[in-house]
Amino acid sequence: MIFRFSSMIFLRITVAVVLSMAWGKIGLCEEKSTAPNFVIILIDDMGYGDIGPYGSKVNRTPHLDRMAAEGMKLTSFYAAPVCTPSRAQMMTGCYAKRVSLPNVIFPACPIGLNTKEQTVASLLKQQGYATMAIGKWHLGDQPEFLPTQHGFDHYLGLPYSNDMGGNAPPGSKGRPPLPLLRDAKVIEAPAEQDKLTELYTEEAVKFIAANKDRHFFLYLPHTAVHVPLHPGKAFQGKSTNGKFGDWVEEVDWSVGRVLDTLKKLKLDERTLVLFTSDNGPWHVKGKDSGVAGPLRGHKGSTWEGGMREPTIAWWPGKIAPGSLCDAPLSEIDVLPTLVKLAGGQVPADRKIDGKDFWPLLSGQNKESPHEALFYFNGNRLEAVRSGPWKLALVHQAELDQKFSKAQLRSFTPALYNLDADIGEKTNVAAEHPEVVARLQGFVKQMDADLGATGVGPGVRPPGRSADPKPLWQRSAKEYD
């Protein structure tokens, strides 16, 4: 009897332990299943005023209008003045200067994104996410710099800007034909640019469908709307705003395809989609350029028009429809936000400049997580923003202005209240010396970290190729 009684107790304990372990696993699965999928759609050179939600009357963007109506419009979301730094910030959660990518890089450049840097993709991959990049990379075209070396399972796209192709034959100097890469191999050169937006979009839809039963991260940095303009055949001549309008409207179609696919597969309530641009409009391109709307400045400048981007966040059931966020935020905030939502940890062994901004997207908070945001142009710190206040430290670039060395040396910092003066027309520094002093305190802190002009102690080295070569001179084996 004692033996039978003991056996029954043992059996019950064993069953309880097994059930507890099973429920524990189920609990873990349920906990993990609450983590969302992520889609980042990044446009090239789109201005603040180029889409309907931000006031455009010349470009038809019904899908982006719907995205904003169903999600949140971010009115003070910042990038960088030009493309490589912007993409470095998006991937690493750091100011581009911190990871030594403050300027545009070109084909066969010896530097690129260091493999020691953690990216959004590599951190999400640690959480079991399927990851893919589709579109313009522009963080280095040497083998160690490509997306597949930075956490992406797969890649399809151009390694740099669509105006960086050439006609140099193999073995000669100059730029090679514009290459289209699949993972790390050239599959087409020159790339058929008129087909790129459709190609990227269909590849994105396939990726989403193939990974509908697991967590995924899709990074979709379009080639559009960078010059030369290449709208697809179905969109050519269809807008009222020339080639530029045609391509904006094709981008809108692409966004619609992605959102509709998520809804069709019942993934919409499990997926956070972020739409934004890498920098402001390239005004020197005239009619082939977009517009900055109410903002002053353009691509290449640290005026608002160069760095403040049209940005929409969409996650049905989690982000309130028709909501608005005016707090200053930045693409450096993407990495910590996505990683935290996925249940991961931001690296603790290095400084990450970005902050988690999910409390703002979810409506729990309305205040920026940043005391200050910094406007770098290359290695030079040109402005700082805190709350509504922006302090310009140097003459900021204007298309029609040139300054003498004496004028540059004699510049007195200018203060703008962006809440009252979004166009940066009125310098109010004289009326608010205490604000100027406070913002100069932030400049002093940053100077001690990254350096306001030179390179400070907080700057980490870039990746460096010992033998940089143009793509066509490398064997397929070198990219494996």
Helix tally equals: 11
What is the SS-derived class?
alpha/beta
For the record, the CATH architecture of the largest domain stands as 3-Layer(aba) Sandwich
Q: Tell me, what is the CATH class of the largest domain?
A: Alpha Beta
Low-confidence residue ranges: 1-32
Look at the structure and name the CATH superfamily of the largest domain. Alkaline Phosphatase, subunit A
Query: Per CATH, what is the topology of the largest domain?
Result: Alkaline Phosphatase, subunit A
Write the H/E string, N to C: HEHEHEHEEEEHEHEHEEEHHEEEHEHE
What does it look like?
It is a single chain. By secondary structure, the chain is of the alpha/beta class. It folds into 2 domains: 35-361, Alkaline Phosphatase, subunit A, CATH 3.40.720; 373-462, Arylsulfatase, C-terminal domain. 28% of the residues lie in helices and 16% in strands. The protein contains 11 helices and 17 strands. It has helices at residues 2-33, 62-70, 83-92, 120-125, 196-210, 242-264, 304-307, 334-341, 358-361, 405-409, 433-449, and strands spanning 37-43, 72-78, 111-112, 130-134, 154-157, 180-182, 185-188, 216-221, 271-277, 308-314, 323-325, 329-330, 373-377, 380-386, 389-392, 414-417, 463-464. The strands form 3 sheets. Strands 1, 2, 4, 5, 6, 7, 8, 9, 10, 11 and 12 form an 11-stranded mixed sheet that branches. Helix 2 (62-70) crosses helix 6 (242-264). The longest helix is centred in the N-terminal third of the chain and has 32 residues, at 2-33. The chain is globular and about 60 Å long. The termini are far apart. The model is unreliable at 1-32 (pLDDT under 50).
